[in-house]
Amino acid sequence: MNWTKEQEAAISFPVKDGAKLSPDTRSATVTAAAGSGKTALLVERVIRILCDTEHPIPADRIAIMTFTRNAAEEFRRRMTDAVAAAARKDPQNTYLSEQLIRFKSAPISTISSFCLGIIREYAEAFGLPLSFSIIDDAKAALLKANALDTAMEFFYSKEFDPDSRDLLFKTFSFRDDATLCDTIGSTYNKISSLTDPEKWLEECVSAYSSPEAAEKRFIPYYMQTITRLMECCKNSFDSYATIIASLDEQHPDLPKLQAMLEDDEARLKHAQIKLSKLGSSPSLAELYSFASTIVLNAKGALRFATLSCKDDELKERIKAPREKFKEHLKDIIACVSDPDTMRQELPSQYDAIRSLAALITLYGKEYTKLKREGGYVDFADCERLLLDKLRADVVFRREIAERFRCIIVDEFQDTNDIQYEIFRLISSRENNLFFVG
After folding, report:
1. Average pLDDT over residues 36-65
2. pTM
3. What Cα–Cα distance (Å) separates residue 209 from each residue in 4, 205, 206, 351, 352?
4. Which of helix, strand or coil describes residue 23?
5. Does residue 211 have a cis bond before it (omega within 30 degrees)?
6. Exposed (0-12), middle (13-18) or buried (19+): which is 316, by Cβ within 10 Å?
């Protein structure tokens, strides 16, 4: 197969001054589009690693992780065929034949299965019975329902302040208990992939503890959102500006369309100039002042110029991107809170978010307790348990890290924070990671 220059560089990595280095001395992340031959590239890379007698790495010391079980099985099949073919071409090469045998025990699996394999091996060290099993969907649903019942019993108990209960429903506009339960469950599921979900919840609560804390938490988000929306405005404006610019000079609608375009362009440039003057860390008051005047043009006019065009087909072509242009500007206004209103509402919001965080925490602890009592884990548990053990036990981390000379992860863009941290901790000085995504 003929490889492109970029593909060859990825397959051969690392190379320094024309000389091939051992794959466990440098890490890399390779970006590749779908259908660009990622699997073929990875197969070729592993084949070359196995055939490199100058930097020999046994097949069972290469960990290969994919996103789905089918992909893992396909990769193992293709790798086995490729190694077998290489061994047949050189029957005197006992090293290749040995790799074919070793390859059968090489960890080629999904990330969850990789974690599960280590936990099964060290079950007692993780505080699990040797007979533990992966919980099925039906049992998980039952235990989650029981955990929610416990959280809701606390919510309606004498220990829970009735005023806080009312604030929680009012602040988040929960229609009923079912809506609250859905939020507790869905939030717990989302934060389970974070490396420190408890800390994340604490930071969320802390963000509402004072105006200063709120500004510190939300201004970076506001700036990111506004910057993105301004880019969307520019793209939408360019779309209909290009259409108008392509019109014949004699087109009867051109003068009115140009006048409208000039008004929109003045508004856009006015907004861009104001945004540039804000700097990277404006106060909430400065940001709100900017956002609340964003739809004004340079002359201070609020109303947008009318799209006047007798050509209905042309009008529809211009209308769609122009409406998006106007919507994006209005979205900027909506995304920033009024500082005065925020200060007034912050105490009740703090109480509400603290109550919600407490319910999520209780639900998570109860669900975990019920699973352990039944001898169950789920795949998210496998990742969490392994991460916690790797962080806390240096000897264990070193033992796992010494198993793998190369760690290859396919579909890296689909990994979460916990998974990446696991790879980082089991790598050798973070020099043997190869990500493709």
Report:
1. 88
2. 0.79
3. 55, 7, 5, 9, 11
4. helix
5. no
6. exposed
